[in-house]
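Example 284, ligand adenosine monophosphate.
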Amino acid sequence: MIVVEKVKEMQKIVDSHKKDGKRIVCVPTMGYFHKGHLSLMELARDYGEIVVATLFVNPTQFGPNEDFERYPRNFQRDLELAQSVGVDYLFAPHIEEMYPDNFFTKVVVGKFTDKFEGVKRPGHFDGVATIVTKLFNATKPDTAIFGQKDFQQALVVKQLVKELLFDIKIVVAPIVREPDGLAMSSRNVYLSEEERKVAPKIYEALNLGIKAIQNGERMRKRITSIVLQHLRQFREFYIDYVAVVDSETLEEPEEFMTGQSVVILVAVYLGKTRLIDNVLVTVP
Ligand code: AMP
């Protein structure tokens, strides 16, 4: 595996592979790899000959009171893990490479960004759309892999690609979980022992929502209450939001229809740590 720090060098490398008819697959990440990241890198191989993982903790997608400074980082470990799953290039630019002084441009996606994460984290998706655009231009992928873990982000990226005419296929990969159900996240290392014990209740709550839908419940508010009620039993949680929405539009109808694909989205704080998770379910 080759580590690349400069945009120009990255572009030269992918250009030369493309000339040889190789397909490039990009996996954007902020590092501190876990099995979720690695599953994306492994899946990438199914879509092309050259796998480029990117590692960049993007400051513009963090709010002023968020955890940019303390976001976990371990470059050496990430290098070894990416190598172990057969990544060809790790694009790991320094901050000045992506945001030199006098950087004025922002990419604003006008759909899917006005609710949930977009409201709770103002400016977050502008940061995401801007860095994703830059990473796409640096790595010129045919396909890019994103995780369902960041459900709304995947929708925003798809919208970005569609509306700005990026010739890139977006693949969304399933959530990888710990054995007890907690969705893997770089932020899980923030959790105290006590918090870590409660964290799997998020997935439990989501599963109660799934079960309700599968047992015939179609009323959005009732499904939401079931999930909320479970979470509220644990005073360790501060609930940021629970939303039960159409998975394609993020709309919130009073009642869901047979065959509709629904996503249940949860964001909670455990102490200072903000965790998100979601599940997809088709209405029977
Ligand atoms: P991050 O480094 O947290 O920005 O995540 C990089 C990519 O990995 C994003 O597309 C995430 O959605 C995805 N990802 C994060 N956690 C998981 C997980 N537990 N399972 C699958 N994909 C994940």
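Summary: Strands lie at 2-4, 24-29, 50-55, 89-91, 143-147, 169-173, 237-246, 261-270, 273-282.
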